[in-house]
Amino acid sequence: MYFKSDPTPKNTEESVVLNVPLGVITHVEKIGRSRQKGDNVIYGLDVHCKDMRTLRFAFAHNQESHGRRGMYDRLQIVAFPCSYGKNVYAFHFRGDYPDDGWEVYDPEAELKRMGVGNDGVPWRICHLNKNYELCDTYTSTFSVPLNCSDEMVQGVAQFRSKGRIPVIQF
């Protein structure tokens, strides 16, 4: 939401600019209501944001102009598109990519490229975390010192916070 005030002749200061990403808006509410015809009440909107800001917009009310209603309806639609059945670009963009993104990275090939597991390098590739049961925050394939057996790796993981053992992972 981008708002820029117009400087008035009474107020010679620069205009006020508000720039609020739509994803920061948590809710919008209407404020002000007159009980009797002719009451001089300011109508407006409060825009509440996730970053603790509350923006208040005031509108002069008359029978011909319903500026608050139009702004309220538009803000509801653009700030909460899924609630109104609108398409969100991020969810509907379908680019054509030559490679399957899930198959681009091969951790075993990457470790071998770095020399891990080759002759003379004191590390080996370990597949103990294939189902993410050893350590759910590590990759499925990582490298451990060459002289560590799988049993030793599992034993060490039991005594480390969340099973996080010293490894080479990429």
UniProtKB/TrEMBL annotation:
For this entry, the protein name equals Myotubularin phosphatase domain-containing protein
List, in alphabetical order, the GO biological process terms annotated in this UniProt record. phosphatidylinositol dephosphorylation
Entry-linked Pfam families: Myotub-related (PF06602)
Concerning Gene3D superfamilies, the annotation shows: Pleckstrin-homology domain (PH domain)/Phosphotyrosine-binding domain (PTB)
Q: Which family does it belong to?
A: Belongs to the protein-tyrosine phosphatase family. Non-receptor class myotubularin subfamily.
| Domain (Myotubularin phosphatase) ranges | 101-170
The entry's cellular-component GO terms read: cytoplasm; membrane
Question: What GO molecular function annotations does the UniProt record carry, in alphabetical order?
Answer: phosphatidylinositol-3-phosphate phosphatase activity
